[in-house]
Amino acid sequence: MSIIYGERVRLRATEREDVNNFYAWVNDPDVTRYLSLYLPMSTVDEENWFNSMTQRSQSEKTLVIEVRDGNGWKMIGNCGVFDIDTIGRLGEIGIMLGEKDEWDKGYGTEAMSLLVRHCFETLNFNRVYLRVYAENLRAKRAYEKAGFVEEGRLREAVYKNGKYDDVIIMSVLRAEWIAQMKEK
């Protein structure tokens, strides 16, 4: 897969040298507040994750999110597609923005839009879905801007930080995405 470019964001393959940034992000409670991670991760854990990720199919490898930084690019997070169903032509996507100074700038929305485009144009999906904690209003808004609609709720399905939260299932269908692209 080649690099996927947007206006301000690009998605590229993950390299071994990216693991140190991932390690810092997955051990930052602010970053992982709305992720399924709940225990500290070691550098060995992250190395093992990277090694297992390299064994996955090309379609399910994690992508690095980068933003323009002067004449170069700055890594701010990662995203990816997983649990691909080749018969139903669907998959789940996820995102982590680890650089907190880059939050609330629209990069997450753009990265998700690029990932959704990749799912429909490259992977030939009919449906893309994700899960988001109900309390994570910022992410939910970003997903809605990227075309996702709420389709279900798993009540009190996650326990984190001493309390239960609902998990919202959101999706976008190919026909909806095509209609959105025509409007732009």
> Whole-Å distance between the termini?
26 Å
Low-confidence blocks of residues: none
**In sequence order, what are the helices and strands, one letter per element?**
EEHHHEEEHEHEEH
Largest sheet, if any?
8 strands, mixed
Write down the oligomeric state: single chain
Count the helices. How many?
Answer: 6
Helix content: 25-40%
Strand content: 35-45%
Largest sheet strand order: 1-2-3-4-5-6-8-7
Radius of gyration: 16 Å
Mean pLDDT: 93
Number of strands: 8
Tertiary shape? globular
Q: Which structural class is indicated by helix and strand composition?
A: alpha+beta
Concise structural overview:
The protein has 184 residues and is of the alpha+beta class. The chain is built from 6 helices and 8 strands; from the N terminus they run ββαααβββαβαββα. It is 31% helix and 36% strand.
What topology emerges from the helices and strands here?
Blueprint: E1 4-5, E2 9-13, H1 19-26, H2 29-32, H3 43-53, E3 63-69, E4 72-85, E5 90-97, H4 107-121, E6 127-133, H5 137-145, E7 149-160, E8 163-173, H6 174-183
Helix pairs in contact: 1-3
Give an account of the 3D structure.
- This protein has about 180 residues and is of the alpha+beta class.
- About 30% of the residues lie in helices and about 35% in strands.
- It has 6 helices and 8 strands.
- The protein has helices at about 20-25, 30, 45-55, 105-120, 135-145, 175-184; strands spanning about 5, 10-15, 65-70, 70-85, 90-95, 125-135, 150-160, 165-175.
- An 8-stranded mixed beta sheet has the order 1-2-3-4-5-6-8-7.
- Helix 1 (about 20-25) crosses helix 3 (about 45-55).
- The two termini are about 25 Å apart.
- The mean pLDDT is about 95.
